[in-house]
Amino acid sequence: xxxxxxxxxxxxxxxxxxxxxxxxxxxxxxxxLVAELAAMAGAFPRLDLANLESARESVRQSAARxxxxxxxxxxxxxxxxxPGTRGEPDVPCRLYAPADDASEPVAALIYLFxxxxxxxxxxxIDYRARMLVDRASIAVLxxxxxxxxxxxxxxxLNDAYAALEWVTSSAAVELGVxxxxxxxxxxxxxxxxxxxxxxxxxxxxxxxxxxQFLDAPTIDDRLQTHSIRTLVxxxxxxxxxxxxxxxxYLRGTAKPGESDVPLYAAPGRATADDAAGLPPAFVxxxxxxxxxxxxxxxxxxxxxxxxxxxxxxxAGAFHVAHAVPGTVISARMMDDRVEAVQRLLSDPR
Length: 349
Known about the structure:
about 350 residues; three-stranded antiparallel sheet; Rossmann fold; disordered N terminus; 11 helices
């Protein structure tokens, strides 16, 4: 990580923090990272979506180096293909379930990976999917949705909706899923798709979601938030890539930032009226993250709409820092996620 001015270490409570002081438009801003995250910040590759194939290859290599989760119980893991919605192509998915709870139907979570709508794979979330099954005693359906620009909006959203249709179908019932307890979890761009899916599911009055888990959701194509304008040199995701991401995703639908961008493509445009009637939400944001304010703003919109909403903003953390295994702060984030999943996917009747 490049530190333009000075880097010092301070102690705040029980946590060591790395502080970067930089000048932005003549103003001084302090950016804090928890020490264990600051120590590894330089290890993350700087992606350049102007060269999309190179960025995708970098992400593939990173996914290949991720550790394997060691479950405390036997898990059932199957790669499957589910029917696409409305005659679209089949959608590759991976279904995870606890083998020892086969006699009792379990709640299920649709899991959507991140990657700016243009990168990523199930392998990126395999570790955390297994952890959720192991610790929360649920089933997880990880979705290999289509990526832009080859398949721009609404292809990925349609694939997510196909997953919702399947996980509430008789096929899922036969595999031990309680179709009355279905939620959706997404990270980064996957969080954007999760928010979009909640809107679409409500409006189509079809299969019902009882919870949405939005982790650093990428949901606002206008790129005018304070965090995306000021947090320009931070680990994992840099704002210079956001215009490419949105242009690829919205190609053929609208120009990013214009008034005709559909709400289902960019839920960050929602008003409280738009958000009324959505399922309860657990929203996660990270303080040192350009997408931070998109999640914070959306959580506020949900709250104003009367949607039961938990909001967790993690100080001293960068974009999706929960994905960094072996750190104290990521363990705390995953504890919070597991608790929220268990609570919000409990029997709604």
